[in-house]
Write a structure and sequence with these properties.
36% strand; 4-stranded antiparallel beta sheet; alpha+beta; 180 residues; 3-stranded antiparallel beta sheet; 20% helix
Length: 180
């Protein structure tokens, strides 16, 4: 039995959860999210318990969908109440970021600036030139955009230059001068 899937998702005040066939819609103060779940999983909303998830069979794949569906709905509920946030840090001399309209501009050591289009539904800000804050209600979208920005210039192990998450540890290597 899925330990995650059998726990109901509690619905905080100010959040409405609706099910329509295979679609779950969550609406709250920070926005509206929807998700189409697998047909093997039944989702129902109980006013006292919250959102309840049941599965049709006991095959391994269906058990995995059971826990996955519950986790995705839980992330949606958290997203429309608190939201999600990723913080990135730019390390390197002359490396900086700025926002121009709906475009994130990155100067990270290439001949030209790198321009990343900010997706609809995300709030991206630069408190200073070396930090980027990505906020939104969709956990997947926030994480995906943060990963795409980081992939522009991953932190390298010799000098540590590049774009990294604020809490990320970059393992440093000794250069070739160590062997001498």
């Amino acid at each position: 039995m899925s330990r995650v899937g059998k726990q109901p998702v509690t619905i905080p005040s100010g959040v409405q959860v609706a099910t329509d066939g295979g679609r779950v819609t969550v609406e709250g103060p920070l926005g509206k999210l929807s998700f189409t779940h697998r047909p093997e999983i039944r989702v129902s909303v109980d006013s006292e318990k919250g959102v309840i998830f049941e599965r049709e069979g006991d095959e391994k794949q269906i058990r995995a969908y059971h826990g996955l569906t519950r986790a995705l709905v839980q992330n949606m509920v958290i997203g429309v109440t608190k939201g999600y946030e990723k913080k990135l840090e730019i390390v390197g001399v002359g490396y900086l970021a700025s926002i121009q309209g709906q475009t994130l501009q990155l100067r990270v050591g290439f001949a030209n600036e790198v321009h990343k289009q900010i997706p609809q539904g995300l709030d991206v800000s630069c408190p200073d030139q070396t930090h980027i804050v990505i906020k939104g209600s969709d956990k997947q979208m926030v994480g995906q955009f943060a990963a795409e920005v980081r992939a522009v210039r991953k932190p390298e192990p010799y000098k540590g230059k590049g774009i990294r998450y604020v809490d990320e540890y970059v393992r440093r290597k000794a250069g070739k001068a160590v062997g001498a």
